[in-house]
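Posted in: Structural Biology > Protein-Ligand Complexes

Title: Requesting predicted complex, calcium ion in pocket

I'd be grateful if someone could produce the 3D structure tokens for the following input. Sequence and ligand are given below.
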Amino acid sequence: MLSRFALLASVVSASVTCPDGWTPSGSNCFRVSPSSGLGDSPNMASACSPGALASVLDATENSGAISVITAAGTADYWLGATKIGATIGDTTSAAWQWDDGSAWSYQGFANGEPNQAMNQDCLIIRQKVGDGKHQGWMDWPCDNYGRGAKYGVCKVAGTTSTPPPSPSVIAASQGDPHLSLAHGGRADFRGHHGSTYNFLSTFSLSVNVRMANTSFHLRPPPTYANITVHGTMITEAYIVVRTARGRWLNVTYSAEKVQGDHARRDVVTASCSSQAASAEPLSVQPGQVHPCDENLLYLGFSTLEVNHIPSGDSWKIKIKSMPVYDRISGAHHRLDLSFVPTTPEAQLVSMPHGIIGQSWDGDGRAVDGALDEYPQTEGAIFTTHAMAEGAIEGTPSDYEVSYPYDVSFKHSRFGKRGLSARSTSRLASSLIESAAKEGTASSSAGASGDRFPRHPHVEL
Ligand SMILES: [Ca+2]
Ligand SMILES: [Ca+2]
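-- Reply #1 --
Done. Output follows.
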């Protein structure tokens, strides 16, 4: 079974880049000429430099031409075409050529045009004026009836770039806890009871989690009945945001306060303040959106969403409380988390770090860490031990923080600009690296065939 976050493939499409002041349309760029030349069509070529008087080859380009002349204001603009072999008054004999040699494959003449009036061997485009009767192309005398200013629509080829695929835009933690890493990697992370670890550290966002020992029976029975697991669960999550205005948003989601399946108003506590540690609480009500500058908090049925959206470091965090099924002792609820960067990886202010955050390392390749291999024999007792070795730089203790809203640890990116990604060459020797599935999202968040099925599967 694939989880929903495994299916969030990023959609990558080619984008067209234009020089400053030019408007992309299709694969080309348009603008109105900065000067009017001498008012006649033959002189417009230099007025358009470095582009040329525009050819308009399809409806998309026609829309682009109309949009730039509409923005510029006046009515009529030259296009780069010349009529040859026309006979005055014969509206069918005109043969048009684009000055840039493109094939004449599309035309957007206004009603009643071209009307082959005398000497109308050049082409203009007229924006909607008056009753709109003449919006569109018109044949026109190349000397503009001997009058002065007439500007042109200019065109240059855009630069087409296809951004590199980002194989996984989401990373997550679920259960006791299984990590789905960016670019498709996975690992298990037990942590130590009562310790708090940084999962994600970025320029203006930090997410810590606290672990608690928890024992439970593996699901689903009856296939593997009576297997006891002594594991850990995330029972509290702590978010620190530095807002674009320099204020502090602090959020705690406490699974210990959840009763039944419903989030109550006191499961999430938050503050939004100019002080790093504020006594002014935000009253987080289920079903309501709470803003803190550009950040938005929303607590639903059991899921807290935090949208952190300054330019250059934008993330969506979801934290969902779940019951600990077939619990024996320890936490009665756990937290599952997911992290989505909504800024392209290459544009983040600093490359992220933290146990999960470091997997956005810019290379698009999956790195797997240590995984707990659950026993499959009736009556087995198993204590988890994997600590994401191989998928994290250094040791787990490097990620321990000393209090819930602590943003400082060995690899912290908080408040730091331009820091590079972790180095995969420095990961532990047990590193198992596999080529990322190009252009696809991580498929690691769900159960997979080579392991014991992961228990209760959630969709955040
Ligand atoms: Ca005409
Ligand atoms: Ca990677």
